[in-house]
Amino acid sequence: MTRFVKRKRHCCGLRAFSKDLQTLISQLQAAGIDNPRRELTLLIAFLQNRSYTDVFFEPAISGEDFDRLVPLVQRRCNNEPLSKIIGQREFWSLPFKVTADTLDPRPDSETLIQAVLEHFPDHDIPLTIIDFGTGTGCLFLSLLSEYPNSLGVGVDISDAALAVAQQNAGRLGLDQRASFIKGNWAEGMQGTFDVLISNPPYIGLNDLLEDSVKQYDPHQALYAGEDGLAAYRALLPQLPALMHPYSLAFLEIGLGQGDTVRWVAKQAGLVFLATYPDLSGIERVVVFGKSGPGH
């Protein structure tokens, strides 16, 4: 078991603790944490409610803060995501609150934002947007930040996740254009929307996951039946009723799921329009229109 260093409480600069801090950095490195010095700086910034840049250029830590830092480093060494420890994750250059009740926003999901921007290049257009399985609200709220004349609704079955999304909307100054509704996908929804988005759970029950994901992200937001496709089978048939002829639906998908998702969408009366890879070249987002005039 890893031993963590503690020191007597007294105020001093970072350099006075340099040996002990280096020990913490070494422990993070031994636990397989990438860029451990950066992560330690982020933890100190969190403890002191300072920016990363301030801590990096003007480091100062008290003995009391050091004692509080040690258990946080231990949690990180136990593979708990940094975002879950500090309660925040950046997405689309925006800060989002995260909790144990929400899936961590991931860079691959930014592919969906890029896809919407490509199809709707006019940022002044007044879009109506609906996000199914909104979680933290990162997709929905990032789009609202890009389209200042747009508004919409985030849907989730989890009360706890909806509370987090509502807080994120308020923190980002988007709460006047964002509504949140508890719902099971699109059941009971009415009206039509210009943009329909979703990053549903798409992990199969027997698929392998990293411990940091399996242990700390909510399983309801990860798993979707034996093959990971249950959410698409439930959601896609519900979408045409919420689409007008020029609506577009953007869905994130998992590795190797594109063909099956396209088939399910076709059976639901949707027309496949485009696909977008993530930074690793993996097909990540598929775009559909409603069959008939307009597509």
Automatic annotation (TrEMBL):
Catalytic activity, as annotated: L-glutaminyl-[peptide chain release factor] + S-adenosyl-L-methionine = N(5)-methyl-L-glutaminyl-[peptide chain release factor] + S-adenosyl-L-homocysteine + H(+)
UniProt KW keywords: Methyltransferase, S-adenosyl-L-methionine, Transferase
InterPro entries: DNA_methylase_N6_adenine_CS, HemK-like, N5-glutamine_MTase, PrmC_N, RF_methyltr_PrmC, SAM-dependent_MTases_sf, Small_mtfrase_dom
UniProt-listed Enzyme Commission number(s): 2.1.1.297
Residue ranges of every copy of the Methyltransferase small domain listed in the record: 115-202
Domain Release factor glutamine methyltransferase N-terminal residues, every copy: 21-87
Keyword S-adenosyl-L-methionine recorded: yes
NCBIfam families linked to this entry: hemK_fam, RF_mod_PrmC
Protein name, entry field: peptide chain release factor N(5)-glutamine methyltransferase
Chain's gene name: prmC
